[in-house]
Description:
alpha/beta, Rossmann fold, 2 domains, four-stranded parallel β-sheet, 42% helix, glycosyltransferase activity
Amino acid sequence: MITGPAPARQDGVSDYADRLAAALGHAGVDVEAVPLRPPAPGRWLAATVAAAEAVRRMRPDVVHVQFAPSAYRFSALPGLLPRLLPAGTPLVTTLHEYGWWTAPAWIPGPAWRPLERLRLWDRETALLVPASSAVVVTNPDHGAEVRRRTGRRPVLIPIAPNVDRAPSPPARAETRRRLGVADDGFLLVFFGFVHPVKGVRHLLQALPAVRRVRPGLRLVVAGGFTSQALPEGEARTFRRELEALAARRGIAGMVTFTGYLPAPEVSALLAAADAAVLPFTAGVSLKSGALLAALAHGVPTAVTVPDEPDPRLRDGANVAAIRARRDAAAIAVTLRRLIVDPALRERLAAGGRSLAAGHTWPDVARAHAALYERVLADA
Length: 379
């Protein structure tokens, strides 16, 4: 299984690959991880060649590439892997991001269409999609785009939560006391990589209005800033910007930035939360492992709505919809609705658990194992 170079704590795709490999192991599939890691910054060709050589030495039955442009720092060179991998070995590619990136960007869209239809080249993955025996997508939108561009039908295998429920979490009251939440307080949680596209800036801007209906409100922003998509220097700058924004808004005392937390601590935090909020600037769908983790923990969760809403996320049934993106006022309206309506929170908790119950790592592993068997039979 070929992945990007970042460790799981800094990259969602690497975290997914680690979890998938563990689940496949329990399902009887032996997985060898091959990180595509440059020997020096920018040396993606050398990394691609080295990864292919490692695969050749392993002589696997199937090669599975986990692909997202951000995982490879937007280099197109990992897309050349099919030319370097062992001939005759089936290739599977999972697309974690698709439909918005082109390399090189200066080539107009119409010029790509005949190449993609003939499966000669793909504008985002170079040779990966054209050369793959099977293409996996984690959500229907990516699948529709693959079909539109290439005419081929990808395999849909949804993701599962990126944090499991801790088997023996600390007492809820203990976690809340440690975070400084009063007995009559309200604990609101954002969980995930803290990146500009996650909408935390707009969330902070919304908090003064929300605090007026619940003075004991506390927001915990749980997640690392440094990621494959946000290098360390940029991450430090962004964290300072958010801390300064909280200070200007007079809410610094009610906001905690935890940085990266191990999964058991995230589970304990979610178990102690009254609500979660994911105000992503592009909207939220079930391809978000953070959303599935919150729902699996029974946390009523407010989410922004993408241009093409996920029909499985239903306002008032399993999520609370934030009707506008990049909009502090819209965030405040939805959070106030959650805070003042305990019956709504109970309904969302039950609906969210029910929805998340259909997304488990054993299910994901079984679907992959069956796919590997099919591509081997067709090889």
